[in-house]
Design brief:
This protein is α+β, with helices and mostly antiparallel strands and about 140 residues long. It has one domain: Chorismate lyase (3-Layer(aba) Sandwich). It is about 20% helix and about 45% strand. It has 4 helices and 6 strands. It has a 6-stranded antiparallel β-sheet.
């Protein structure tokens, strides 16, 4: 995993509903590659509460997913994560980063991480190569 960038930004309009009490969030942009081939597999952007971001060591994000860092390193009390996965076509930036042709199919994932009180801690937006990933969900009924 390569940390492409980090900083602070105004809360993006599309994420304002998740951070109604904030005007800015910390951002992290990472590119993950296959360990054997070196081929890019996904790129992720995380939008995190600034109070939590102050306790994140960027080197931890090279080793582990944001959820693990928040839970195990920062000590955030994660209550739930809501995942949304949809099919999309690669835009120019995504195609360049993932080394796929423009308009290639990708899996677009949004994960919203909440604390035990229901407050959003992190929103992860991840684009996966469509030719490398699939998701399986199993629901058990009782």
């Amino acid at each position: 995993t390569e940390l492409l960038g980090r900083g602070r930004t105004a809360v993006p309009a599309g994420l304002a509903e998740h951070f109604p009490d904030l005007t800015e969030v910390a951002t992290y942009h990472r590119l993950r590659c296959d360990e054997k081939s070196g081929e890019p597999t996904n790129h992720a952007r995380n939008y995190v509460r600034p109070a939590l971001a102050r306790r994140i060591d960027p080197e931890d994000l090279v080793r582990w997913p944001m959820t693990k860092v928040l839970r195990d390193v920062v000590g955030a009390d994660i209550g739930r994560i809501t995942d949304t996965v949809e099919a999309r076509l690669a835009d120019p930036e995504t195609a360049r980063l993932l080394q796929v042709p423009l308009l290639s199919p990708i899996l677009h994932y949004t994960g919203v991480t909440y604390d035990a009180a229901g407050r959003v801690l992190d929103v992860a937006v991840i684009n996966y190569r469509g030719d490398r990933f699939s998701f399986t969900v199993t629901l058990e009924t009782t």
